[in-house]
């Protein structure tokens, strides 16, 4: 009878039903006392055993709901009312808590057991529960370390974006009470020379001078950007202005060398630096 049920559980290929039979008194190996607990066991493949266990739990829940409803149902009821109640009670949820009259019992989805105080497998279930908790704690620690690693990567990406745009993105992760770091925007001074820009002179000496002029012209432009950067301290700004002035002077010297060589070869001089860098002075 359902009222004698102590436990329903399955483990891999084993399905067991524990019932309390006062007519059969035995000595419990766990309590070393007299107990009327009788265990019936069946074996089959895991999927079949689990299906049997689910159906048994559902049937037991149906018994409990029906018993509870009988206590509330008045003596005179119509067949339609009874059919409606049976329909509502016929769809129990296996995952919800199952309570008996006098025992606090719980369905454990991890090991497929309806644990009660009289179960012979309650100690084993406690050990499995501890192992499961330890496993979940290890997994939690691993996920926390992974999360910290990803947060650091996100911070680096946000800092790089702030250096390029001059504005810290809102995705930058901040702790409680933490202020976003102050980042200065980087000045873009990189340049690339196109092969088509280099002059093609028959004279190799003049070719080298012209190539050197184009390269140094790019360096002057980069120095001008650095000297024009806002929010610089006085010493740094003064140093960069001097470097820019030296670069302009060097460019003028290269142009003078080109013109001297061109005059020597019977060609006309040029004025490249003044055309390429209008307004070379920094305000």
From TrEMBL:
Q: Does the keyword Glycosyltransferase apply?
A: no
What GO cellular component is one of the record's annotations? Answer: bicellular tight junction
Per the annotation, which location comes first and is thus the protein's main one? cytoplasm
* Tree of life domain: Eukaryota
User: Which Gene Ontology BP terms does the record give?
Assistant: establishment of epithelial cell polarity
Keyword terms: Coiled coil, Cytoplasm
Using the record for this protein, list the coiled-coil segments as residue ranges, or answer none.
126-153, 237-264
Q: Outline the extent of the FERM domain.
A: 1-67
Gene3D superfamilies, from UniProt? Pleckstrin-homology domain (PH domain)/Phosphotyrosine-binding domain (PTB)
Subcellular location as annotated = Cytoplasm
InterPro entries linked: CUPID, FERM_domain, FERM_PH-like_C, FRMD4A/B, PH-like_dom_sf
Q: Name one Pfam family in it.
A: FERM_C
Protein known as: FRM4B protein
Q: Which organism is it from?
A: Pomatorhinus ruficollis
Gene that encodes it: Frmd4b_0
């Amino acid at each position: 009878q359902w009222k004698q049920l102590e436990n329903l559980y399955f483990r891999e290929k084993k399905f067991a039903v524990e019932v309390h039979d006062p007519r059969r008194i035995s000595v419990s190996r766990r309590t070393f006392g007299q107990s009327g607990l009788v265990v019936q066991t069946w074996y089959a493949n895991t999927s079949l055993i689990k299906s049997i266990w689910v159906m048994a739990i559902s049937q037991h829940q149906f018994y409990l709901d029906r018993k509870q409803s009988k206590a509330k149902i008045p003596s005179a009821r119509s067949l339609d009312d009874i059919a409606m109640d049976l329909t509502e009670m016929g769809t129990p949820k296996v995952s919800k808590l199952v309570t008996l009259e006098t025992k606090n019992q719980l369905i454990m989805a991890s090991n497929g057991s309806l644990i009660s105080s009289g179960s012979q497998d309650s100690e084993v279930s406690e050990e499995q529960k501890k192992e499961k908790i330890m496993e979940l704690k290890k997994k939690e620690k691993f996920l926390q370390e992974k999360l910290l690693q990803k947060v650091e990567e996100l911070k680096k990406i946000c800092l790089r974006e702030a250096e390029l745009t001059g504005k810290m993105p809102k995705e930058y992760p901040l702790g409680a009470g933490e202020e976003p770091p102050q980042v200065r925007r980087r000045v873009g001074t990189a340049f690339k020379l196109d092969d088509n820009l280099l002059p093609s002179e028959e004279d190799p000496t003049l070719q080298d001078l012209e190539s050197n002029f184009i390269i140094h012209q790019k360096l002057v432009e980069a120095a001008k950007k650095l000297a024009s950067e806002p929010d610089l301290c006085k010493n740094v700004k003064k140093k960069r202005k001097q470097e820019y002035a030296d670069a302009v002077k060097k460019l003028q010297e290269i142009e003078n060398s080109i013109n001297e060589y061109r005059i020597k070869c019977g060609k006309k001089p040029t004025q490249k630096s003044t055309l390429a860098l209008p307004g070379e002075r920094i305000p």
